[in-house]
């Protein structure tokens, strides 16, 4: 009986997760096609996902809840790829840094519509804005700790970890959101090289 209960709970969670992802994918597609998230109705979002309005509200409190979950998702992806550099920041490995920067750019390329949605929602929904700030702060703290790791190993310059981490994190966010979506993908390699140069020269002694 206990195992059956756990199995049922797992199945329900999988169905909830699948439905949430279905709505998120549909929302990103609408925004990618030029729709403004602020102007989209719940009915439009539900219709694009192939569900009813009532089903939407079973899974989301409102549009703000949808935007908050999208925020958590894209920031989690950025955390995942950034960790490759955070965990090796004390090795002064430029190629490792370049690989991490390229992975971050790939997240912005794939999830560009999600970032646009979050940005639009944060402009008028204070709860989304607070969620975004909180999650960005988590990225800043992780970057600060990576800088401290590099400084302890003697491979990084004596910059202020907290302030430098904040500047670099928000710089990457602006480049990802504003520059990458407005340029031809063929130029993204150069953007990755430039970001790598900026971060490397700011932090490392070598």
Low-confidence stretches: none
- In whole angstroms, the N-to-C terminal distance is 61 Å
What share of residues are in beta strands?
under 5%
Order of H and E elements: HHHHHHHHH
**DSSP helix fraction:** over 70%
Largest sheet: none
Specify Rg, calculated over alpha carbons.
Answer: 20 Å
Q: From the helix content, strand content and strand pairing, which structural class follows?
A: mainly alpha
Number of DSSP strands? 0
Query: Count of helices?
Result: 9
For the residues shown, what is the average pLDDT?
91
Outline: globular
Structure description:
This protein is an all-alpha fold and 206 residues long. The chain is 79% helix and 0% strand. It has 9 helices and no strands. Helix 1 crosses helix 6 and helix 5 packs across helix 9. The longest helix has 31 residues. It is globular, with a radius of gyration of 20 Å. The N and C termini lie far apart (61 Å). 28% of the residues are buried. The model has no long low-confidence stretch (mean pLDDT 91). Keywords: DNA-binding, Transcription, Transcription regulation. InterPro entries: EthR_C, Homeodomain-like_sf, HTH-type_TetR-like_transc_reg, HTH_TetR, Tet_transcr_reg_TetR-rel_C_sf. Pfam families: EthR_C, TetR_N. This is TetR/AcrR family transcriptional regulator.
